[in-house]
Amino acid sequence: MTGKQAFFGALGHLTGRAMRRSHRLDRRAIPLWFFDVLLTRRFARLPKLSPEQQEQICSLLDQTEYWHGSGRFQYRGDDVIDLLQIVASSGTLEPQLDNFDAGGPMQSLSLAPARIYARAYADVHRTTKKSPGRYGNAAFWAAMYLGDSGLVAAQEVGSYRKAKRQVKASGSRTWHQKTTKTPTSLVGTFREGSDIPGNYPILYGVSGITLTKTSRAIAAHEVRTLSPILLAKHVTHIEVPRTYIPETSAFLHRYGRGNIPVVALEDFESYARTQPYSLLFAGTNQRRGVTRQGARRRQTKARP
Fold it and tell me: Do the Cβ atoms of 88 and 72 come closer than 8 Å?
């Protein structure tokens, strides 16, 4: 891990700790106010949205609980598979074997309450080292979130050394093989992107799924489901880079999935820049600026 990655990881952990304290107290912890003053709107200058774009983004955010970061193509051994074709033809996102949870392997799908975190996973599938129109690059957000999750894992299993061994045993050293033939570290995969020609990020907005229990380290920033995600029932919209909207829309129409909105990933990034850093990091209903965890807690307390 580089010094810069370690710094971002530490910053992510401080943010995560303050976020979890806020959830316990049901009010914002003081460090989050400080982080918002220091970090909000600091990562990129992006175009402003038109009123029509703003309305569309807000409407989709209101419908969406979680995000799943994916892409158009991935390697399976020496072959390249078309993920979009598989999803569009079957109508589902299917659970896959996941070894990262300390509780043991599971057939599951990983999603994030924070869109910006899932977008980093989607950006692993980009074919350029830099991606314009992003509010912070994929390696930055990955280091922030994974740094926090790693320290939570260390607390959970007893030491950072044990947590590091568990991550290595789960296949972190070969994770890059999904998108690139060039060996690199876990965070390096987010930095380098994909070497598959024509590949691009795809981000699925998801709601109404049943969640399963995970370790505290995973639960810090992710959720898991053991069931397939149905395009017709659970997917609220699909985000892709603006230049790939026509291609993606045409592909979905070919398989009878043309009713799913396909929108520009860059528009959501422009909206993200208007949000306080702490809410963006925590995972929010970004239109109302309320953490979902806090909202659920208040609803629970209000029940007779």
Answer: no
Consecutive H or E run containing 96: strand 96-98
Write the DSSP symbol of residue 228: P
State the Cα–Cα distance between residues 96 and 283, nearest whole angstrom. 24
Q: Which of 9-18, 24-33, 291-300 has the highest mean pLDDT?
A: 9-18
SS3 call for 302: helix
Q: Provide the number of structural domains found in the chain.
A: 1
pLDDT in tens, 198-236: 999 999 999 999 999 999 999 999 999 999 999 999 999
121 is in which domain, residue-wise?
3-298
Residue 85 falls within a domain, yes or no? yes
Domain contains 282: yes
**For the chain, how long is the longest CA-to-CA vector?**
58
- List Cβ neighbours of 297 (8 Å cut-off, separation of 6 or more): 23, 26
pTM recorded for the entire structure: 0.91
In a domain, 37, yes or no: yes
Q: Residue 304 domain-assigned? A: no
